[in-house]
Amino acid sequence: MMRTSHLSLRRPAPKVLAALLAILPVAACQNGQMTTASMPIAVEDRHPIGVVPERVVLDVNGGGAAELQSFVLAYGQEGHGPLYVLAPNGGDRRMSEAVYADARRAANAAGIPVASISYAGYEPVTRGAPVKLVYERMVAATTCGQWPDNAAQGARNEPYYNFGCATQKNFAAMLEDPRDLEGPRYQTPRDATRRDVVFDKYRQGERTGAEAETGGDGRASEVGE
Prior knowledge:
The chain is an alpha+beta fold. The protein has helices at about 15-35, 45, 65-80, 95-110, 165-175, 190-205; strands at about 50-60, 80-90, 115-120, 130-140. Keywords: Signal.
């Protein structure tokens, strides 16, 4: 005759159950740390593109009007903040003031507010120091060439740390304005004249859109007719 044995299971005490539940998350976290990669997988996380200021300087020793105009135009396109005309203390004051006046004229001709041109002095290191035109622009940059691990000994089948950095660096170099990475540009002003014309036509019950060209039937050629 076969006997059936029953195993009696005792319900764990509340304190023991609470201790077991507290241990489980810790074990899961430790297990996750063992299987998680030691570096970010995405290229954008390993090699983020940063936007940093860079100083642009032009030394003016007399003459060079075309070079000064090109420098002011470049400031209007990429400058961040004012354009400084720095005169050496103890230098030729008439020359410094002439360069300042030329910079203001070049800015006015290019549509740049002359209020953005500032005049100041600086302490020269040597005698005969030039007048300096200085402004700041924003540049996009990332750091490449970092090899924290031996790429030949990786057993995780993951990309090496420097992988993709050249692509990020080339992308940063192709940006027209690195400030686009920080946020969208402001909208240009609307054409008030065109807006008034459209509203006048709307009030008079006329068509506000462009008129279709007459004589256009969509045919590209009359061959075979």
